[in-house]
């Protein structure tokens, strides 16, 4: 994942001009040295001791791209050294740790935000705008299907609740962002299907209750081969006047009721609007740019921990529901 971040810094003119990488830290020093060489960062310090490199380089920002179990220690170290911190998802390995990190950032007077890069794509922004403009009428439900079969190897295949914790948060966050609603409760069934190459939790089905009587359903699997969806899921968004469908890539279909007679009322097509700001459609680069702008403006970015904890609460609510086999109330 570090390569994705460094590519965004290298290939985005505004970021290339505004950010200087002064250090790279990895438990494997050779990995840090290899990244420095690959991205032509000869002047960047490398090391295995985060505190030592932070003390030596005194950066303004720490980019936290570690595995979830290490998140709390890394973020806390960055905040203690006076850094703003931008983390990979998930925000923390538990909801308790997420609350602690939110409090630590507030006490330090620094920002801690999360890279929810998949809300910074054109499709998600277009749907958000359509819902905000109520073109489909009042929003009633969102439905997402996520079916892929990636063979990652490495830590993901050994994780508990791998789909919910490592991937579903993207879809959950997108649903929360597009709808503009807050999660209130969830019922989830999770399993590890026969033939799964993951140790635990490669499949999940969840029903979320959102504020204002909106329902969000999720069907997902990371060991489903043969008919893949997009990484962004396949979506159906329903309002009181019509429905929008998105394949997670380039295909949109939206229709609205146009008449008042007939067993099935007649419908007609709708155009899905463009994103309000094209600058919000470039994934990692957009997240980092907005983070830097928030620092300069003295405000919280869109994916600040104080907001992102709600998406994380959806994840841990679903995990708890699957474990207890009952509906769980969500509280961030």
UniProtKB/TrEMBL annotation:
Residues 16-113 form the Gfo/Idh/MocA-like oxidoreductase N-terminal domain. It comes from the Bacteria. It holds the Pfam family GFO_IDH_MocA_C3. Residues 124-244 form the GFO/IDH/MocA-like oxidoreductase domain. SUPFAM superfamilies: Glyceraldehyde-3-phosphate dehydrogenase-like, C-terminal domain, NAD(P)-binding Rossmann-fold domains. This is Gfo/Idh/MocA family oxidoreductase. It comes from Mesorhizobium retamae.
